[in-house]
Structure formats: C-alpha cells, structure tokens
Write a structure and sequence with these properties.
There is one protein chain. By secondary structure, the chain is α+β, with helices and mostly antiparallel strands. It has two helices and nine strands; from the N terminus they run ααβββββββββ. A hairpin with a 4-residue loop joins β7 and β8. The chain starts with a helix and ends in a 17-residue tail after the last strand. The mean pLDDT is 82.
Length: 199
C-alpha cells in the first residue's frame, strides 16, 4: 500500500473528512430551496402589512390621549397658579391652523407667542409640537383666586387626530378636568353625551 493510500484510509477511519451532519439517504436533502425561502418571506411581508394599520391606529390614539391628559394637567396647573399668585389665570386658545393653547395672566394674550413677562403667557403649547393633532374648538376659561380653592369659569376644548377620533377636555365649575370621547368611542373614555363625573 502506498503512503498516499494509507493516509487516505487513516483519514476516512478518523472521520476528519466526514461532513458535520449525517449523510442524507437517497432521495433526501438538507436545507431549504430558494422557492421555500421566497414563500416564507412573502408570508412575513403579508403579516407585517396586516399589522401596520393597527399599529398606526394605536399610535395615533396614544398621541391623542397623551395630549388630552397633558391639557387636563395644564388646566389643573392654571387653577393652582391662580390661587398661589392671587391673580386671575386665563386659558387662551386658537383653533384651526396653526393652533395653540396657553395659560396667561391676560385674556388678550396670544398663545402663539413665547411665554415671557411681555406676552403675559405662563405656558403655551403649539400644534407644530403635536403633529397629527388638531384643536377643533375651545371655549374661554379662567381661574379666579378666591379663598383657598379659587373659582372657575368652566369650558371645553376638543382635540382630534387624523383618523377622526376626538377627545373633549371638560373643566367643571369646581376646577376639575375630565376627558370624554366625542363621536366614535375610545376605549377607556365615556361618551361626551354622558354626564360628567361627580365633583
């Protein structure tokens, strides 16, 4: 036996040249064909496309509710500022495009301005900072610094997203804010036709 044949026989006995997987039986194959991979990718694309609209709806609703809750918190802050400083605080708002709302010392303040001593604004929120949302309507509200609780001129503001869902932020005569869904029901909110929660 030549040296080359001896080395070949030794290598085949030791398994050095053997593949890391067992040999396929006749008629069997390992791995996936290109056609199988293309079909799997097509199914994944269809599933992702089906999930995208529901994800978009969830994000749009989340942005709307988040902005409405922030508006409610701003109303609570306005009441607090009126009592703390002993001055009337007004909610000023502008619907349409561009829209804004703000808390101000003067009813004539422009919410599109920058909050400072000259503008009379304590805080301003601009629509450009909340893309996809619109302020549909707003009524004038104010907080008077009476006694320790203050008195309130109540009102409502309504925010809407591009999907047509709308949330109304209501301010009660006692200065408490609440949210309701205007139009189509939004899970977790009562309809605006329902009476507001007790104060």
């Amino acid at each position: 036996m030549s040296a080359a044949k001896a080395r070949t026989a030794l290598a085949s006995r030791s398994g050095a040249d053997a593949p890391p997987w067992p040999a396929a039986a006749p008629g069997q194959r390992h791995g996936f064909t290109l056609l199988e991979l293309v079909i799997v990718m097509a199914v994944m694309v269809v599933l992702a496309a089906a999930a995208t609209p529901s994800l978009g709806a969830y994000l749009a609703r989340h942005r709307l509710l988040s902005a409405a809750h922030q508006l409610g918190a701003d109303l609570d802050a306005g009441r607090h500022e009126a009592v703390r400083h002993g001055r009337t605080v007004h909610l000023v708002a502008r619907s349409g495009t561009p829209w804004c709302y703000g808390l101000a010392w003067r009813a004539s303040a422009d919410c599109l301005a920058t909050p400072d001593q000259d503008s009379g604004l304590l805080k301003a929120v601009h629509g450009e900072d909340l893309p996809g949302l619109q302020l549909d309507s707003a009524t004038a509200m104010r907080f008077e610094p009476r006694a320790t609780n203050g008195t309130v001129v109540p009102g409502t503001l309504q925010l809407r997203n591009k999907r047509g869902e709308a949330v109304q932020v209501r301010l009660s005569p006692l200065g408490r804010s609440s949210l309701c869904s205007a139009g189509a029901r939004i899970p977790g909110l009562s309809a605006c036709d329902d009476p507001p929660p007790p104060n």
